[in-house]
Amino acid sequence: MSRTHVTCTVNGDPVDFLASDDTSLLNALRGELGLTGAKEGCGTGDCGACSVLIDGRLNCSCLVFAPEAEGSDIVTVEGIADDDHLHPLQQAFLEGAALQCGICTPGVLIAAKALLDANPDPTETEIRYALAGNLCRCTGYDKIIRSVQEAAVRLKGAAR
Amino acid sequence: MRYAAPTTVDEARSLLAEHPGSRVFAGATDLIPQIRAGRPAPPVLVDLKRIDQLMTVVHEDGQWRIGAATPTSNLTRNRDFTAMFPGLSEAMGLIGSDQIQNRSSLGGNLANASPAADSVPAMIANAVQAVIASGDGTRTVPVAEIATGPGQTSLADGEFIVEFTVADPPSNTGDAYLRMIPRTEMDIAIVGAAVRLTVDGDIVTDATVVLGAVAPTAVTVPEAGAALVGAAIDAGSIDGSAMDTLADAASAACDPIDDKRGTVAYRRQVAGVMARRAAAIAVGRAQNGV
Amino acid sequence: MTVAADPPAYKWVGTRPIRHDGYEKVIGKARFAADLDLPGQLHAAYLRSPHGHARIVSIDTTTAAGMPGVKAVVTGADFPDLDPTDPNFDVSVNVMARGTVLYNGHALAAVAATTRAEAATAAAAIQVEYELLPVVLTLDESMADGAPLVNEHNVTKFVESDGPSNLATVNVLERGDVDAAFATADLVVEREFDTAHVHQGYIEPHACVVDVGPNGKADVWASSQGHFMVRSLTAATLGWEPSRIKVTPAEIGGGFGGKTTIYLEPVAARLSEMSGRPVKLVMTREEVLRATGPAPASKSRVKIAASDDGDLTAIECWFGYSVGCTNDFAGLVGAMSVASYKFPNLKLEAVGVLTNTPKTAAYRAPSAPQAAFAIESVIDELAQALDMDPIGLRLRNAVAEGDPTAMGMPHPRIGFIECLEALRDSDHYRSPVPDGAARGVGTGFWFNIGEQSSATVNLNEDGTATVITGSPDIGGSRASMALMAAEELGIDVYRITPMVADTESVGFTDVTEGSRATFSTGMAVVNACRDLIEELRARAATILGVEQDAVTWVDGAAVADGQDPLPLSAIAARAKSTGGPLTVTASLNAAGAGPSFAVHCCDLTVDEETGQVAILRYTAVQDAGTAIHPSYVEGQLQGGTVQGIGWALNEEYVFDDDGSLENASFLDYRIPVASDLPMIDTIIVEVPNPAHPYGVRGVGETGIVPPLATIANAVARATSTRMTSLPMSPPKILAALDTP
Amino acid sequence: MPRVHLMSDHRRFTDGEAVVESEGATVGAVIADLEQRYPGLGEALTHGASAGVNGEIHAEPQYLEVDADTDIYFVAPLTGG
């Protein structure tokens, strides 16, 4: 098995690692970089628990070969809070009880961030479709959707 | 297995020539699940996304050129493209989640040769052409001639799709794509139907109907298109008997299978429903310019 | 929204603080089992049966053992053979096949290697010779005369039995004379129903890391609903004393009953013992669907009699469940008991039947949803036939305190009528049904259970308290423990740290199941806090120079006449000088679990050209007893409801003729996605359980019971076609609509 | 005397009687008494039944105290999810 030396940026930090050519970016993040926030729920792109942003775009990191990450800018759930404050989505999820077991939460937060970055004022339907690739089995999605709505309101308030 | 990311078409050609059995990929959204499910890994994985031509969308001289590896979300977010091909755009917007659409490509969706690929009926309805790197040059063929059966294509070893070309639609033309899935997202189509039609006032003058997921490949249904040509449009609605003929023709054209996703009877019945509903949307777009 | 007759004035109970474990979970730092890596760790992979039923003629592991990176290989021969009468026999055989594979996906060997890919490659290289045996996949095939045996070791439970059989269990409940009642009834409705196998669908695949040290002791990190259960079942499967094993509970990524048993840990332990290295074993999604869970498929016949004025006079039911390839599925009585109306005449029979399909597991109120689907569908049809309001018919016949359960025992204080009234009076039910839509109502309940729990409360020198329990937190129970402790001790909930400790750091605690964590473990926490307060009063008496009897505990402080209140923190700071550390432990075997009733209502449309159902509005009403943390009570109701919606509409196992699961992925095993659903409105009814200090009933189970019939009843009213087969997938609805 | 309510499955030991009276100050003593009078019943109740007493279900009830007015309902074991 060939291994490739990959240099990229993860959560703002320049990193490099050696990855088997057939391994996923998810495995590299978890195994090589110790960033276990992104989870493997299916390995086939159907559950979204491994969601990360690559160059600002939402991806399932289980569907990306690790060497593809060369030169890219990756954001995982570990990187969305700043030094002093949780991201408004994280805060809204805590206050809104939008997580139960928490296994889907990292992926949902990333997908919701991708949505709000592109569309600061989504409708409920837009939120539901934007999160359709993120399965949650605990919550029935209700409190997740409400918390994304709440975070959107707070982000707009902060931007004003 | 080795990963390679060529930056030119010629470099990719060489890699494939040197390593028989290797695979090109763009989004890998089908490839990775297939490898996980036990499909033998190719000797070299050739990533096409570092080749500029395959990632570029150009609109000039009444024609679009779409890099075969371009993420479908680049196209669904492209307002000019979506205004011209709303049906093709909505078909691409149905390929999996947002996560998937940031990776999936028209080239991959076509070359994977799933009978249920959402973009393919819509590409065929719009007479999209595939430009294929072949030997030292290229050849151009209609999209309909690529897939030959489930997982099977007419692409020879070493060939790969470079880009797609499609002419701007004539005026007063609209397209639409609808599919039936059990959920609202994240499913493979049980039935897909693409319709493109052109109107002259209150008369349909041209129509193409293409079905997906009801046969080993996407199927164009000439009888269904013919049923619409000459049909009258009254207050935005196509004549009911023409629509009934369209639906019957669509159902009759199905050659489906029973599988975990749907039955033969269901696919046949719903193919007519989807075709009729897609035609109803398409006619509105043709008359109203979207 | 909460409905309570006379809510007590609590300071903390009933509030909605941010959960204590939430921060780690939103920043990606929470440790689930697959997140742990140990130095030198190996990765393991299984070989699973490609056949639905076969004798293992031979297994040759020599090639695999010599492959790159391989450090250890195990087969059934590496585990002791338990006696078939041993209560852990079925678990042991399911963990690793001995002699016979009982279903497609049954584990029969595993490999540990330096990488997961090497382990998988080597596992695939193990040579197995099979002698194929007949495969029995359905309840009807299994019960047919002369049916091949599914499992030669099965003996029927609860009835006289002579020799192996495909019957797993037979339970019968009866009272009165149903035949006479049916003979004289004004109206009788009888229907047959069936439901498919469904999976719990937790997003976290089963995972563990096991490190067996040179002293023979095993450290296990595992995702489960009960780490003491993991310890005892792992020990039994290995033939070890439980004390050789320490299990540390990882965060659990969903369970819903599916993680009340083990699959991985003995295999990883044996591989670790053989290799001398830590071993990580994580299932793929395909393995989760092929070889864990699911809930049983079912068939049923339900016949109910009513008088013209709406009195339900008799019920006769037969429920059959395909419990899978082994016979350790309990709880069928729960199924029968969902007939929660005052039937003077009743005859209920539930039968468990073996099939060559995965061993089934509990799934929220095990066996009740299938039965409630059937019973509540017939009740709805009676309401239609009698032209009665579906809530009105149910209110007229609903059981209340003192009415007999199906088992005969009188119901304790329950809130069924209160739930029915809450829905009847809700905005949803009082609103007109939207144009083109239809409305359905359904009900359900679950007994809930008590069992054993332990809790330790350590008061820290800064006046904070650490509350330690043995109940894995699968949906917010740590927050509940902290709230009850805050209420008892009178300190801020954020000055309490609730945690779940390993098997060597807290007293024995049964599995988190049956809605028991907040009830039983919560009661242990309350008892520990009350003992701690006794001790605090004694210490305060020493400090204040008064008798203990003169000290009362008010709002987190010791109060004695004529003196300033002495706050908890001041006593904690003087622990050393007043007798040493302040720490107490309480444990109990709880009885008195309170049944939780639920009533659901759904508005939906059916596309009659495609058979597709769209849910427009949904309200779940449930009696929580007392909602300790209402947000997480709502979450349990919403989560259970949506699982029930999935069960009703699209979830099903699709087997081929050899028992191979054709849809072993989240692509084709279709759990609901966000865009399928509306908001799930909740109404929490609070009829306190008198057996719990705060009135808790437990809420996790019941929410999944009503949705199946609720949706079927709405579909019946939308289409004038009664769907009796789940899932009501678009092809099935369309086929039913086309059947005259 | 405590009254014992039997599941249908256990009535084969009692000639179909659904409710029998029994002696004993604990559920265990009651079961022992029943075994004397209905051979096999005690064994069946010990290994395959929980007992409902005073509205509460007990999985291991043998030392539970009962008195002359107690109704004991033997039911199949319950689990949860």
If you had to describe this structure to a student in words, what would you say it looks like?
The complex is a heterotetramer of chains A (160), B (290), C (740) and D (81). Helices cover 34% and strands 17% of the residues of chain A. Chain A is α+β, with helices and mostly antiparallel strands and 160 residues long. Chain A has a five-stranded mixed β-sheet with strand order 2-1-5-3-4, with helices on both faces. In chain A, a hairpin with a 2-residue loop joins β3 (51-54) and β4. The longest helix of chain A is centred in the C-terminal third of the chain and has 18 residues, at 142-159. The mean pLDDT of chain B is 96. Chain B is α+β, with helices and mostly antiparallel strands. Chain B folds into two domains: 2-167, Uridine Diphospho-n-acetylenolpyruvylglucosamine Reductase, domain 3; 173-288, 2-Layer Sandwich (Enolase-like, domain 1), CATH 3.30.390.50. The longest helix of chain B has 25 residues, at 264-288. Chain B has eleven helices and 16 strands. Chain C has 740 residues and is of the alpha+beta class. Chain C is built from 21 helices and 27 strands. In chain C, α10 links the parallel β15 (312-324) and β16 (345-354). In chain C, α7 (227-238) packs across α8 and α15 runs parallel beside α16 (517-544). The longest helix of chain C is centred in the C-terminal third of the chain and has 28 residues, at 517-544. Chain C is globular, with a radius of gyration of 27 Å. Chain D has one domain (3-75): Beta-grasp domain (Ubiquitin-like (UB roll)), CATH 3.10.20. Chain D is built from two helices and five strands. Chain D starts with a strand and ends in a 6-residue tail after the last strand. Chain D has 81 residues and is an alpha+beta fold. Chains in contact: A-B, A-C, B-C, C-D. Chain B binds chain C through residues 33, 36-37, 180, 182-188, 190, 259-263, 265-266, 269-270, 273, and chain C through 284, 286, 609-612, 649-650, 654, 662-663, 665-668, 670, 672-673, 675-676, 729-731, 734-735, 738.
